[in-house]
Recover the amino acids of this structure.
């Protein structure tokens, strides 16, 4: 065999794997790998950057911290959790990936994800496109008026923002209000037809959370709390995810 | 916390959303559906996947629905999630998405329904990049089409085969 051997450095006391185990329920089962490879065979990210889920976990277990905290593969795993679903030991590899993302200095993380997170932090909309609450209210009002007129059967249709006591609190992907507002209509019509009592929030209406993908813990929590608080402040019963 | 798929299903069962698939009886246009990881595998599981299928079949006709393999909680991620779409690793994202593309092509469907925006953007891009002949459409578009309340300007993601079907207020076309 001419395969190059992996050279292990002397064992360290506190490895990256151990740190991650400490913050996960049941340690993410990260010590339970049977090396069966079920995760690998069903993972579309297998092979990218010469990496796969089992290899990533094994390298972590071997204390190869430098390698696993520097491979761009952590940005190619979508953390879809299919590996956990098929794993006989329910090992939380996606959380290992997520925490590897957190080790990258913030400014070195992928620019597109970073930019979308920073946009969401600009104002209380929490929209990855940076749309302000005022612009959102304007677009919603404008499009609603246009359609009430063009389609008189929907003259009574509403698209409320901050309606106190509404049953449903809806989020909305920013793409619709910002780039394709006509796509808002089918959703509103369905809600109108069924007589749903619903509202958007002027705060936290943005449906996406790129700070989570960026692995910026403080920022994603900030965004999630703004949405949740707005739904609570309005007295809504159900947070309805529209995607 | 709920997914709107669950409510679509509930409203159809309760008779509030009177959808039917008559519009597709003769057209026989085939549809498949993407199970978004975030909603199905990671949040609500197979019961939400079943709700999603109930809605889709009610709207397009049971005989016009073709499932992907594997599916529901065991489905492949499209490759648009986790920030991949914005990460800048475009070639890797498409290599990842090739699994999804092949899965869709295997069904032979004319449309892939993607009710999640990440999935929608990725699956739409995969069709364009790999030369697939399917369209990628939101679920709400088809629900309104079925109800006869889908206007001419709300059809961005419908293919030519459906652009002129069941148009609500065609005179308002822009």
């Amino acid at each position: 065999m001419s395969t190059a051997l992996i050279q292990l450095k002397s064992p360290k006391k506190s490895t990256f794997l151990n740190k991650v185990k400490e913050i996960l329920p049941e340690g993410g089962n990260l010590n339970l790998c049977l090396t069966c490879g079920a995760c690998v065979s069903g993972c579309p990210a297998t092979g990218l950057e010469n990496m796969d889920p089992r290899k990533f976990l094994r390298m972590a277990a071997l204390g190869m911290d430098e390698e696993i905290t520097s491979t761009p593969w952590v940005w190619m795993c979508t953390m879809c959790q299919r590996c956990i679903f098929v794993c006989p030991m329910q090992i939380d590899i996606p959380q290992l990936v997520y925490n590897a993302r957190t080790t990258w200095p913030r400014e070195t993380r992928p620019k597109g994800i970073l930019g979308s997170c920073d946009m969401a932090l600009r104002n209380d909309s929490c929209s990855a496109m940076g749309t302000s609450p005022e612009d959102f209210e304007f677009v919603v009002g404008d499009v609603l008026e246009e359609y009430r007129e063009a389609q008189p059967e929907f003259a009574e249709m509403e698209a409320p923002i901050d309606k106190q006591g509404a049953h449903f609190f809806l989020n909305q992907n920013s793409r619709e209000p910002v780039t394709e507002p006509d796509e808002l209509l089918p959703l509103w019509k369905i809600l109108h037809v069924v007589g749903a009592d619903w509202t958007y929030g002027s705060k936290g209406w943005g449906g996406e959370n790129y700070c989570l993908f960026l692995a910026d813990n403080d920022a994603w929590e900030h965004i999630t709390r703004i949405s949740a608080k707005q739904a609570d402040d309005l007295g809504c019963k159900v947070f309805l995810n529209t995607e | 916390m709920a997914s709107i798929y669950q409510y679509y299903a509930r409203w159809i069962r309760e008779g509030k959303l009177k959808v039917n698939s008559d519009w597709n009886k003769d057209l026989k246009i085939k549809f498949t559906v993407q199970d978004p990881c975030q909603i199905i595998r990671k949040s609500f599981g197979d019961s939400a996947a079943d709700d999603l299928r109930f809605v889709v079949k009610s709207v397009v006709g049971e005989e016009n629905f073709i499932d992907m393999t594997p599916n529901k909680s065991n489905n492949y991620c499209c490759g648009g999630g986790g920030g991949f779409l914005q990460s800048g690793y475009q070639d890797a994202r498409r290599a990842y998405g090739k699994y999804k593309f092949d899965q869709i092509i295997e069904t032979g469907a004319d449309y892939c329904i993607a009710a999640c925006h990440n999935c929608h953007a990725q699956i739409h891009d995969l069709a364009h990049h790999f030369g697939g002949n399917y369209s990628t459409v939101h679920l709400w578009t088809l629900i309104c089409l079925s109800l006869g309340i889908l206007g001419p300007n709300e059809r961005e993601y419908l293919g030519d085969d459906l652009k002129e079907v069941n148009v609500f207020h065609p005179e308002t076309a822009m």
In short: Chain A has two domains: 16-104, 111-240. The mean pLDDT of chain A is 95. Chain A is about 45% helix and 5% strand.
